[in-house]
Design a protein that fits this description.
The chain is α/β, with parallel strands linked by helices. Helices cover 35% and strands 30% of the residues.
């Protein structure tokens, strides 16, 4: 599902980069297709953002963010200028509606606008609206099921302004949770029986927010966000050892910190993370008819923190693993595999956005 900004004119061989703008930084991914359903990771790069440049998914400082985008583009070595961007799920209203089948594109658009009025708490001229025909409606074959997505125009315009100021051309605006889902679908396809019938919970632990999606056969059963993230541990490290934010971020992932770090800072953080995950799973059980989860996937920059997977597996008694969106892809010769292993979980959204090239 994407708010399409004039997509690629049907040319699948036109390079497109996925650009994920989050609170902590900007991540870029470029993929290519080397055979039927065979993808290759060509380039990936990240660039940190100053604190306050992006807050709660809102771009507060267009200049700082576009500067970071310009740097990450240069660092990656890509020549591609077309870009797919994501919007935070909290800033997009999505709704499935049923409409009569057989309508022309114009009639469909008119109907969607009429329906949208009921669900959107803003004037339609303040809104970017898009829709996607999912297929035949389940209980009435003559109707179609349509997914509509709407967001405030300024949310789209800010991201477009950032990309354009960095010399890039935005062509697709997706929803971050949909992009993550597209990337995860590739991974569940690699499970036994292609993951059919498996209930998979995806926890993306970002800097400040943990996004939870529970999926069955690629379809979301449950989604929510919790205010918890890796920034908590970074700030603890900064305070305890008087080092910079950037240094704390690096050392947090490697564990290269003074004696006492594990017992004083890391263990309490891991306990909090495990509590957040078990609480989220309980919420899922109490608010849906489902009573089991078969697999937990951990993603986001925090997923590789030593000990996180182990404590979550032990507390939940559910098979838990760190997910790499690039699993099963070929890698271009320029990519260092060992480095990628540590960094990959943070690129789930950027990878999903880059996959829009092959839709």
């Amino acid at each position: 599902m994407a708010l399409d900004l004039g997509f690629l004119l049907g040319k699948k061989n036109v390079p497109l980069i996925g650009l994920d703008i989050s609170t902590s930084g900007v991540k870029l991914v470029e993929l290519s297709e080397i055979g039927k359903n065979e993808l290759r990771l060509e380039r990936y790069a990240t660039e940190p953002l100053p604190r306050g440049a992006v807050v709660d998914g809102n771009i507060e400082n267009i200049e700082q963010v576009s500067e970071a985008v310009r740097r990450v583009w240069k660092k990656s070595g890509t020549r591609a200028k077309l870009v797919a961007l994501g919007l935070p799920p909290a800033s997009v209203i999505t709704k499935k509606i049923i409409l009569p089948g057989g309508l022309s594109e114009d009639e469909l658009e008119l109907q969607v606008e009429t329906e949208a009025n009921q669900y959107i708490p803003f004037a339609l001229d303040e809104v970017s609206l898009d829709f996607d025909v999912i297929g035949q409606a389940q209980n009435s074959p003559e109707d179609v099921e349509v997914l509509l997505a709407a967001t405030r125009k300024e949310k789209v315009e800010d991201r477009v302004a950032v990309a354009e100021a960095a010399g890039l051309k935005p062509t697709v605006m997706d929803i971050e949770s949909y992009a993550a889902r597209a990337a995860i679908e590739r991974i569940t396809d690699q499970l036994p029986q292609a993951g059919q019938g498996q209930i998979v919970a995806l926890f993306q632990i970002g800097a400040q927010i943990t996004h939870i999606s529970v999926l069955l056969d690629g379809q979301p059963l449950y989604e929510r966000e919790q205010p918890f993230g890796g920034n908590q541990l970074t700030q603890d490290i900064v305070r305890a050892y008087g080092i910079s934010q950037e240094e704390a971020e690096t050392k947090k992932k490697t564990g290269d910190l003074p004696q006492g770090y594990e017992s004083e800072l890391l263990e309490p953080f891991l306990e909090s993370a495990a509590l957040e995950v078990t609480r989220a799973i309980q919420f899922f059980f109490t608010s849906t008819p489902y009573t089991r989860i078969d697999q937990i996937f951990m993603a986001g920059g925090c997923a590789v923190i030593p000990g996180l997977v182990e404590i979550i597996a032990s507390r939940t008694k559910i098979s838990t693993s760190v997910v790499s969106p690039f699993k099963g892809m070929q890698l271009s010769p320029a990519i260092r595999e060992k480095q990628l292993r540590n960094e990959a979980p943070a690129y789930l959204v950027a990878c999903g956005l880059a996959m829009r090239r092959f839709d």
